[in-house]
Amino acid sequence: MSKETFRATVTAEFDTQWALAYPLVPVMYENHRFEQPKTAWAAFEIHEINTGRAAVGTVRRFQREKGMITVCIYIPENTGTKAGLEMLDKAINIFEDRIIPLPDGESVTFYTGQSDKGGLKNGYYEMTAMIKYHRD
Questions:
Q1: What tens digit of pLDDT does each residue of 81-103 get?
Q2: DSSP characters for 33-85?
């Protein structure tokens, strides 16, 4: 289970689809230089929740990692929520109910997404898309 293979594949999938839908909305990725704009922007993160043994019958045992992708959408305050909610839907739809094969032969299975509104923070209205996954 290569963490880097997983990160690179999932990030590339998000980046490609997000850029097609919202080419003018920049995305902040973990530990990358980012200059926060005065317009809408997003933050993409992968969170590992736990790893454990899984098995199919009594013969095949393997390691399964569970986690969550979060995409935080930041919309300038006093501009409404329409654009943010549309971006939230897109972020969820990129992964929701999909199985994505990884180059190392594993796959990642995404579940139904959910969202949360964080409210106003530092001049932006925050909304977060959350999509749980497992990979093995």
A1: 999 999 999 999 999 999 999 99
A2: -----SS-EEEEEEEEEEEEEEEETTTEEEEEEEEEEEEEEEEETTS-SHHHH
